[in-house]
Amino acid sequence: MKDQVNAAFQIIPGPGNPDMYRLIDRAISVIITSGMRYRVCPFETVVEGPLDKVLQLVPEILEALYSEGVEDVLSFVKIQSRKQGRVTIEEKMAAYDAE
Q1: Sheet containing 37-40, strands listed edge to edge, beginning at the edge strand earlier in sequence
Q2: More confident residue, 50 or 88
Q3: Tell me, what CATH number does 59's domain have?
Q4: Which domain holds residue 33?
Q5: C-alpha to C-alpha distance for 84 and 2, rounded to whole angstroms
Q6: Which pLDDT score is estimated for 34?
């Protein structure tokens, strides 16, 4: 499980916030800065990395949004892990990337 996990982050800053897309871009910038592999999708961003580093993104993203003046954030995180081995974005997406 410590090798590599996949986590899907869906962050919704202050529901109804008129700056929602700018703030989501800010959250994604935290993921980009982490140096971990990621893929931005329409409803969430998938991150690939060690579990502890992936989980560390949660408070970092929240702090980045709070520093932008956001008062309320909905955060949804889904994690896939394996007892042994790596979980990759490619194994889930291979059949669809060819389209």
Answers
A1: 37-40, 45-49, 5-13, 73-80
A2: 50
A3: 3.30.70.930
A4: 5-97
A5: 8
A6: 97
